[in-house]
Amino acid sequence: MAKSSPPRSATLRAVLQSASELPPTKGGWRVSDALEHLLAAEPRFAALIERHGVPSQYVGWAETAPPPPFFALMRTIVYQQLAGKAAASIMGKVMAALGLGGDGGGGGGAGGDSARAATPADVLAATFTRGEVEGKTKVLLNGVPCGLSWAKAGYIRSLAEHFGDPARLGGTTDFGQMSDGELFAKLVAVKGLGAWSVHMHMMFALHRPDVLPTGDLAVRKGVVRLHGLTARSPYAGKVTVDGKGVVQLKDDRAGRERMKALCAGWSPYASVGSFYMWRMQDTAVLVPSSSPSSPPPPSTSSPSHSGSGAAAAGGARAQGKGQNKARTAVPKKRAGKDLAMTVAAKAGGSSAGSGIRKSTRKRAKTEDG
Predict the structure, then answer these.
(1) Which residue, among 314, 215, 299, 292, has the nearest Cα to 257 in the 3D structure?
(2) pLDDT tens, position by position, 290-341
(3) Exposure check for the chain: N or C terminus, fewer CB within 10 A?
């Protein structure tokens, strides 16, 4: 006999109605279908969807023309490990030094007042040097201080070289024809684009629906809370307990495989499920303390980067408390301003990054630096 779905609150019905009125995403799939799928796969998503509504990266994106792939990724590199305002300032200096103007913080095209987006040819024709400015060593772009680190200058040039090489990304104007696995392999080959940055680009800038960033600390912690995992849960050898008693999935192969097993039901909308794991930090979710969801033992084979996504490296703000007690679906007071790593930069100026926290930078720095 089929299991009946729990009754839906007026708030949840309103969110689903709002999602149904959105146009298809960049990937051509509908947000309403994703939410219905997640609710069917895991009823605990109801509290998260009620609390946080439709994921912001899918709202209003069609109103602004997306930037070309090279420029979007160039901006991703510039914005790594920086708060949005500082990153936008540096982006503006880079664009000015390239003779393109603009502040780098707008929507489509090059952003701001720029006439056009930077191209691989613009970067390859530029010169990056070190020079003394007011007694300090600075990176100069075409002789002008631009605020970049020497490492990021090298990353941007590496990106331009990849886009200028027909055997790599040369001639690519649209990633839409590439599978998740092919796209991932080509982008992580670029110096400075680690797995975490590539997965964020796939999720937010390209709206790839089925990416599971298993290396992201906040997503892993969200999964622990969603399933009410404790040190005595099945497969407990795949979790650790820190000094405060917080259970964590290990960021190793066994831990990642277990996470994929726990989240298998999210596919083909793992990207949307991951968004709500980031938002889990702001919500107390009803998680039964007994009989947490127990997936089958993880496969010993290593899956590809297509489908439900694969291990990414990155992280986000540590959050959550031990899940030995049931929690009620009530808002949790925010501990401060919602500071994003500005994944909006990756998505061409959208508000997509609001779910990723400031401390993501620490882990991203290790992976991408």
Answers:
(1) 299
(2) 333 444 333 333 233 333 333 233 333 333 333 333 333 333 333 333 323 3
(3) N
